[in-house]
């Protein structure tokens, strides 16, 4: 989720390949799939923009740099988990990660929660999630069901 602001800045703001609602929609779909959310997002964005080749290139572009960075970090810290400098760096990194996630959630909310009912739904989902009443997967499936029902109810009816 921390990479979402990077994707949003690049695809929506800089290149204007996707709109903010498109980005939010793809992100919601990516969350409902199995696997790493940002890889799912890259597949969906590449597929929407270029097709199958775009999806493939997007996956490679997202996975390979992360793989090499993690490999390099693993080689550096292997056997050094008790190092006080490494521990201090990781403790200092936690607030930055939280800030990145909160910033992404804020931008998605501002772009997509513009009327009363979506704001109420988001607040209710947040309460259910934070109180551990139901899992994120249940909330995603519930959101899909509500969206489909609303779409079905609002569909144009054929004239008799």
Number of strands: 0
Which secondary-structure class do the elements indicate? Answer: mainly alpha
Helix amount: over 70%
The biggest beta sheet is recorded as: none
- Secondary-structure element order, N to C: HHHHHHH
Strand content: under 5%
Basic shape: globular
CA radius of gyration is: 19 Å
Uncertain runs are: none
Measured distance between first and last alpha carbons: 49 Å
Give the count of helical stretches.
Answer: 7
Mean pLDDT: 88
Return the domain count: 2
Account of the 3D structure:
The protein has helices spanning 4-14, 20-32, 37-49, 52-77, 84-112, 116-130, 136-154. With 160 residues, the chain is mostly helical. The protein has two domains: 4-112, no CATH class; 114-160. It starts with a helix and ends in a 6-residue tail after the last helix.
Comma- or semicolon-separated keywords:
160 residues; mainly alpha; 2 domains; 79% helix; 0% strand
Layout of strands and helices, then pairs:
Elements lengths: L3 H11 L5 H13 L4 H13 L2 H26 L6 H29 L3 H15 L5 H19 L6
Quick structural overview:
The chain is mainly α and 160 residues long. The protein is built from seven helices and no strands.
